[in-house]
């Protein structure tokens, strides 16, 4: 195992064991998106507060493997305070990374890059992308309100 793989594993386990933004926003403060991955049983409840084209706050609750829960932790950390367009661009970049596509380096992925190895395991990609799909649905829902 390379030292980079070891570092990535430690970052993933850190987010899994000490998730950032774990919790739920009051319904009056935002919207909630619930998604499940029936293939493996992962589930997420993403709370989003979107105002004036910006992701003001993001929290999640859920159950699942270390990949899905750490991805949710990383995603909420990364999109909080970002304009919706930038959050969606980050989501697209993450999706490209999960599909093994070449990823533009103009946006710093930070801890999210630790999930890049998941692309080698097709059965785990749905685990990693569950929270991101919830983000995309939540942003669309917020734009319709």
UniProtKB/TrEMBL annotation:
| Boundaries of every NIF system FeS cluster assembly NifU N-terminal domain copy | 8-127
- Entries under InterPro entries matching the protein: NIF_FeS_clus_asmbl_NifU_N
Q: Which GO terms describe its biological process?
A: iron-sulfur cluster assembly
TM region positions: none
Which Pfam family is one of this chain's hits? NifU_N
Recorded GO MF terms: iron ion binding; iron-sulfur cluster binding
**Which family does the record claim for this protein?**
Belongs to the NifU family.
Q: Quote the protein name from its UniProt record.
A: Iron-sulfur cluster assembly protein IscU
